[in-house]
Amino acid sequence: MGNKKSPRSNPKRKNGQCSCNREFVKNVLEKYNNDPTRLMDVLIDVQEEYGCISDEAVDVIAKTINYSVAQVEQTLSFYHFLSQKATGKYAVYLNDNVVSEMMGREEIADVFEKEVGSKFGNVSKDGKIGLFNTSCIGMNDQEPSAIINKRIFTKLTKEKVKKIVDGMKNGLDVEDLPGTDVKSNILKQGPILIKDSVLGDAIKKTVQMKPDEVIEEIKQSNLRGRGGAGFPTAMKWRFCRDAQGEKHYVFCNADEGEPGTFKDRIILTERSQLLFAGMTIAGYAIGAEEGILYLRYEYKYMKEQLEQVLNNLRKQGLLGKDVAGEKGFNFDIRIQFGGGAYVCGEESALLESAEGKRGEPRDRPPFPVVKGYHQQPTAVNNVETLCAVAKVMHNGAKWYRSLGTLDSTGSKLVSVSGDCAKPGVYEIEWGFTVNEVLELVGATDVQAVQVGGPSGKCIAPNEFNRKLAYEDLATGGSLIIFNNKRDLIEDVVLNFTNFFIEESCGSCVPCRAMTVQFKKKLEKILNGNGVKQDIEQMLSWEKVMQSNRCGLGQTAANPILSTINNFRELYDKKINKDKDFISDFDLKAAVAESCKTANRIPNIGGDNG
Amino acid sequence: MDKILVRINGKDYSAEAGKMVLDIATENGIYIPTLCHYEGIKPQGSCRMCTCMIDGRKMTACTTPVTHRMVIETQTKELEEIRSTIVELLFAEGNHFCPACERSGNCELQALAYRYKMMVPQFPFEFPNKQLDAKNSKILIDHNRCILCKRCIRRKKEPENPTWFVFKGRGYKTQIAVDHEMIDKEFDDELAQKAMDTCPVGAIIRKEKGYDVPIGERKYDKDPIGSNIEKGAKL
Fold it and tell me: For the domain B3-75, what is the CATH code?
């Protein structure tokens, strides 16, 4: 990848606050036509230049787009990779998801802290290196991994980290630090991933048909959304095409944030033409002239390469005016980056974010197909779905229907990681059993498989004969394997629960507050203070979680609930069987601070004493 | 206006198409508890209190428009459990010391806790230690009492104007923040009072004025929350 940019200029500081060049910020704003709905792009550009968005920069942005300072901060403060505090000349974001932990993250983090001389969450005293944690960055097949100024560093070892820190201390360009390569790890190709030399043909074939015929062809293929919910693609397009609006939009949801999922990563780096063809076909079908690829910030390293592919397509006449020679069909694609927020993978939150706002899911109805981007009809499709669209148009619906099962046609890309010999991306036909996948990837001594990421379910060996299919085990495309050495509750469930607490947008009460209470309960059990009632209580909270607005909130307790349901014995082992009740309230902890201040030893007697 | 038919709790009602389930229920004397809803502000279902079974799915009554032959359940055992749990969650999440709060008796959260006969939340208190924001001369913000309903954010002077309040942060770290720039410029006594009235709890308190109505004679001291709507049903 030809990204040859030097690391960001050293943040200039005054009084511990980072500073900025007002002219630079003004130029950035101008680049985006001083458009408040492009606030994300503005903030990202400023962040990358200075490693922070200073008060001065916020002020310039606010004045230029006619916002108040607080309004700019409202968006800014939502995103993980945007910061009003300095993050250093080199900002290191070390993945803290469960597989990273399994592959030795803790040791790596220690080496980072020791070598840099500061703790995670801080910037070194000289302002050079910032160390931060981050959720899954889509590299589960090569953990532990980290992002440093947009570049990805994989399979980190103690030695590698030492070299990286040395390089940073010596002011090397980020590209010159050791260990920046991302392996593709495509380990099984199927109908989607196999390269056809005739990609343009799919678009050419499409424009010879009427849009309604295109939708009909997709309908005949029985293609369903690959994001996890499985909504029929043709139906989505039908609703969108029929909805009234000044403009229609195509969005590709490339905010692949579900921990353990990285199949979009390889499509975006290895098969992006196919994806863009799919977006163009969608544009033709619903009557859109603009397609937007919403790409998670973690994948910023792909930008130059993707732009190059888009430019090539424009040169070939497959994007732009009169696409594929079809008079009047104008369609182009731009890339919109996110700022680090799992919830933006929810389609309405994604649209909010793309409009320069906080990524909070919208109330539905109205649905995005009716009122989406800028309140116009918008079809939001998953990366893999759009690739399948291009293949369907190229090879025909009949061909596609011959693959997979009756209800789940075609194939599925699965990202496999965790305890197995060959982690990577496997394209399998729908209908494969979990057992068959486990054999394929060389997994033995398996205790559990997390299907569909933390928001999916954790299954035990008695369910490994189930099929991956919408009608049986639906999945957005991730399988994380845990062997019998893992403590499922402590190592896995707690990590996932922390993830959901961090990633809640904070809007719905149950998602924001109940996740915290779930964690407290879990800790109570892990600390040896759990009783049977605690488990029952957690199960009774499920209905409250179901009342959340979006999929994140509704599934945020799944790691706990599905392990209680499928691995009850693990919980039973950790609780006190001889007691009916142990208080949640820890008196000793509650008085610890006041006792310390008063220089007294707590004297509270009883069980808590 | 198109008249349609909806079924609420087993009884058929005529309703105006496009209106929200909550409004239709209220019109007909059926009380659905709310916290983030405020008459005249665009609804945004974030507290989830008004969650009902609408055509068999859990949906918020304040944001769901009625459709012909819609079947709505407003008060099943499960829904009431969800609501009382949400009230408990809010009490555990913040610091709600009613006896010391100016809003006591006028507080919707307190009133709902009474409605659900909450003695103590099933959750351990978090006792957060959040800062007060007293920078502005007209109002005081106590984040310890804020339930993040966004009513203050959503209530605008004019629809096209930017708001005085904003959200900052994300998840459990989310807080409202005052747009000091705007508020210093525009706030007078009337707007300060409006801001305080918009808040369902005691998170926005007007300065230099208080305790006009003695405790014991306040809104919900006299009539439990929802009783005005439910009284309507008996007429």
Answer: 3.10.20.740
